[in-house]
């Protein structure tokens, strides 16, 4: 029977729940990091990614509304995260669209939900459902720990390739540079919220499970991008999937 873990034990368990399920392992990510995608493939990524991360402030707003007033620091973090997404400097989605346009697509195509794949639609729907229906600490575990905390490790592998292989400018890849820094901070703050407020065995177990599911969802979404847009032009045999 599960027992209540101390903070160190729980932190390790959360990290283990995500371990081995990083979106870095998806063939789309492997192809990107090795410079084997075309700009057209990257444009399809941007058109999909917009509909996953574009509503992120909305997801956080639902969590914020469900968070008890006594969770002062958690509410402050959620509010700050929403502000950074939408108002603190350039809107993050505008930076993503700038990159998309550099890949050859248009704002209109990016913003059109008809251009996202069914798997992307499923990820977006899951994020909304978790944010609206789950205990706020469980929702933070899903969206901030399970999903957002992965971003720096993913973009650190992909961003150098964008400059060195594809020749994108610093301005065109600002979306990635920004999230390497901001999501490392957000991910750690998410961990701290979960460690502090998941104070029952049930909550700890729910957080562990949903972290695992969140990581699986992002891996599934990224893998689907390969099969939907890349596989016919770049078979798995041409990728080093052991990397």
Q: How would you sum up this structure, described in words?
A:
- There is one protein chain.
- With 243 residues, this protein is mainly α.
- The protein has a single domain, classed as Heme oxygenase-like (Heme Oxygenase, Chain A, Up-down Bundle).
- It is 71% helix and 0% strand.
- It contains twelve helices and no strands.
- It has helices at 7-18, 27-33, 39-53, 56-66, 72-86, 92-103, 107-111, 118-133, 136-147, 151-164, 174-197, 201-229.
- The protein is globular.
- The N and C termini lie far apart (38 Å).
- The model has no long low-confidence stretch (mean pLDDT 91).
- It comes from Billgrantia kenyensis.
- Keywords: Oxidoreductase.
CATH class: Mainly Alpha
What would the average pLDDT be, to the nearest integer?
Answer: 91
Query: What's the shape?
Result: globular
Rg value: 18 Å
Number of domains in the coordinates?
Answer: 1
Give me the strand/helix succession. Answer: HHHHHHHHHHHH
Protein name: Iron-containing redox enzyme family protein
Pfam family, one: Haem_oxygenas_2
Organism: Billgrantia kenyensis
Keywords: Oxidoreductase
Name the features:
243 residues, Heme Oxygenase, Chain A, 12 helices, oxidoreductase activity, Haem_Oase-like_multi-hlx
Care to give the gist of this entry?
The chain is mostly helical and 243 residues long.
Give me the secondary-structure topology:
Layout: H1 7-18, H2 27-33, H3 39-53, H4 56-66, H5 72-86, H6 92-103, H7 107-111, H8 118-133, H9 136-147, H10 151-164, H11 174-197, H12 201-229
Helix pairs in contact: 1-12, 3-6, 3-8, 4-5, 4-8, 4-9, 5-11, 8-9, 9-11, 9-12, 10-11
């Amino acid at each position: 029977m599960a027992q209540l873990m101390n903070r160190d034990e729980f932190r390790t368990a959360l990290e283990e729940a995500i371990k081995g399920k990083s979106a870095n392992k998806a063939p789309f990510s492997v192809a990107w990091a090795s410079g084997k995608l075309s700009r057209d493939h990257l444009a399809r990524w941007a058109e999909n990614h917009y509909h996953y991360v574009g509503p992120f402030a909305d997801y956080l707003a639902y969590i914020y509304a469900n968070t008890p007033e006594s969770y002062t620091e958690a509410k402050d973090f959620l509010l700050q995260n929403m502000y950074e997404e939408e108002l603190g400097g350039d809107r993050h989605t505008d930076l993503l669209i700038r990159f998309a346009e550099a890949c050859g697509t248009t704002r209109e195509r990016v913003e059109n939900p008809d251009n996202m794949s069914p798997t992307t639609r499923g990820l977006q729907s899951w994020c909304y459902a978790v944010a609206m229906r789950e205990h706020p600490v469980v929702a933070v575990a899903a969206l901030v720990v399970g999903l957002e905390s992965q971003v720096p490790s993913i973009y650190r592998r992909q961003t150098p390739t964008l400059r060195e292989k594809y020749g994108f400018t610093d301005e065109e890849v600002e979306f990635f540079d920004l999230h390497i820094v901001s999501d490392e901070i957000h991910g750690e703050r998410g961990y701290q919220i979960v460690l502090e407020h998941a104070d029952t065995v049930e909550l700890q177990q729910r957080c562990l499970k949903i972290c695992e599911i969140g990581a699986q969802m992002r891996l599934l979404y990224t893998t689907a991008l390969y099969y939907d847009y890349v596989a016919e032009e770049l078979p798995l045999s041409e990728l080093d999937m052991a990397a």
